[in-house]
Design brief:
The protein is of the alpha/beta class. It is 44% helix and 10% strand. It contains 10 helices and 5 strands, in the order αβαβαβαααβαβααα.
């Protein structure tokens, strides 16, 4: 929408993003950077370009960087991303319920949940346990038991499942859906977060990115409220 109304451009250069990151650090006290993009029709799914942008941000600002991308056709691309100085990565499956995935994200369904696990295993080997995350969205008609089972399987290999409620956006294909209740989300959090703690994973250990920020989730209420630098998490528990 922002591209259609002229408020942004189709492709930002690494230099542009580095300039913004330096300003964000100096003027607003930014402590890390997260870069995400649409998936490109290339074998690497755009991972190397967003990683080169992340490299420029890191070198110019010193901010730790997370980049987000889809599983590349050749998983060796993930090692190349790590070689560019990226601190953490987000490879987002969105849901562990295959029926929901096929309905809301058919391209991701073609990769398959097991395809994401293969990419995560390669990423954990490259970045370390806790530096690989995936969004897990609640409120799309999923089976909660499948969600918890998938989260625990991901945690077992060192992936941080960032569990968040669906927040329907006006103008999107899902604008008519209803956000899940805080009670439903809390029930899932209470089955996932203790398992994270048992495996020694948590938001405080994430170098950069959404799992460190926690603003879209209330997981941090169960993990704790501040990180090692005293940064306060402000989770959003309801939009009603």
């Amino acid at each position: 929408m922002t591209l259609a109304n002229g408020r942004t451009i189709a492709k930002k250069t690494p230099q542009m993003l580095a300039e913004v990151a330096v300003a964000a650090k100096e003027l607003d006290g930014a402590v890390d950077a997260t870069l995400t993009t649409g998936t490109t029709a290339t074998p690497d799914k755009g991972a190397l370009y967003v990683a080169r942008c992340g490299q420029a941000v890191y070198e110019a600002s010193g901010l730790p960087v997370e980049v987000q991308f889809e599983p590349p056709r050749d998983l060796a691309v993930i090692d190349q991303v790590a070689d560019l100085g990226i601190g953490s990565v987000g490879i987002h499956v969105e849901t562990f319920d295959p029926q929901v995935l096929a309905r809301v994200a058919p391209a991701k369904a073609r990769t398959g949940i097991d395809g994401y696990f293969r990419a995560w295993e390669r990423a954990v080997a490259a970045f370390g346990a806790g530096q690989v995350s995936t969004y897990v969205i609640l409120g799309m008609g999923e089976d909660p038991d499948l969600i918890v089972e998938g989260c625990r399987r991901a945690i077992d290999i060192g992936v941080y499942p960032f569990v968040v409620p669906l927040r329907p956006t006006v103008g999107s294909l899902m604008e008519q859906m209803t956000a899940p209740s805080p009670e439903y989300c809390e029930a899932i959090y209470r089955r996932v977060v203790p398992y994270l703690a048992e495996r020694g994973l948590g938001a405080r250990g994430v170098t950069a990115g959404c799992a460190r920020c926690q603003a879209c989730s209330a997981m941090s209420l169960l993990e704790g409220t501040t990180d090692a630098d005293g940064r306060t998490y402000l989770p959003l528990v309801s939009n009603r």
